[in-house]
Amino acid sequence: MDAMPSPGPMAGTTVLVTGGTGGIGKATAIGLAALGARVGITGRDLPRAQAAAADVRRHSGSLAVDAFAADLSAQSEVRALAAAILATYPRLDVLVNNVGGFWSHRHVTADGLERTFALNHLAPFLLTDLLLARLTDSRPARIVTVSSNAHAAGRIAFDDLQGERRYSGSRAYNQSKLANVVFTYELARRLRGRGVSANALHPGVVHTAFSSEDPSLLARVALPLMRFTKTPAQGAATSIHLASSPDVEGVTGRYFSNRAPTFSAKSSYDTVTASRLWQVSSDLVTLSARPR
Fold this sequence. Notes:
This protein is α/β, with parallel strands linked by helices. The chain has one domain (14-220, 235-284): Rossmann fold, CATH 3.40.50.720. The chain contains nine helices and eight strands. The chain has an eight-stranded mixed beta sheet, with helices on both faces. Helix 3 (75-88) runs parallel beside helix 4, helix 4 (115-137) runs parallel beside helix 5 (169-191) and helix 5 packs across helix 9 (271-284). Mean pLDDT is 91; it is low at 217-228 and 288-292.
């Protein structure tokens, strides 16, 4: 008689991975499910999310994979997703804020906000707040936010956050990725001593379809070179490490690349910028200025 497979080092834990229907997010979900975690993934429509969940089950060998539908660029759908997660999961050990996108032209969300800023920064900001009490109750818990080394070229343009006066796809993306790091550091400061860690990461240059809806000219020109970049599984390695490794238990407020802590851009450590970004973000999603 064959022996039952071991339950895995993450058995008994629950993880939510946003943007888990493809690319780095899906690879992250596969890796964490294979380690024994119950994994929830999100996608913009339910059939696609369910199909991705079936793939995650098949590749991980785990049946404990759930699909949730939400367009996270819309705040009402972020709130509905949070309500569904809280109703489904009595505990939440890890939140992986993976969802993100790039648009070379300016698009406006249902809330009247520029899509890159809304999806890449405000969605994880709001979702984290809405799930924070459950994460705290499940402590030790972890919040992992996928940024990019593109943050180093970013600037938080408080005078034009929504790109209304001047829009550039790369400028909007770089700003949103810097916001991810600034948010992570401020979140870690506010959560100090509460048993919930917050870290950000650079996944590497990965061949995914995240900019395929509205690619820039540079992205189209560079497409033939993408075969030389990381695979989604390679890009997911640092997310999986931060979500699961005992080596980073209790480590918080750090930026990682290739599964190792490293320094982010100097501008990301500015606490005045962090405090201002937190307040502006809170106003845009109508939250109090502190995590619950």
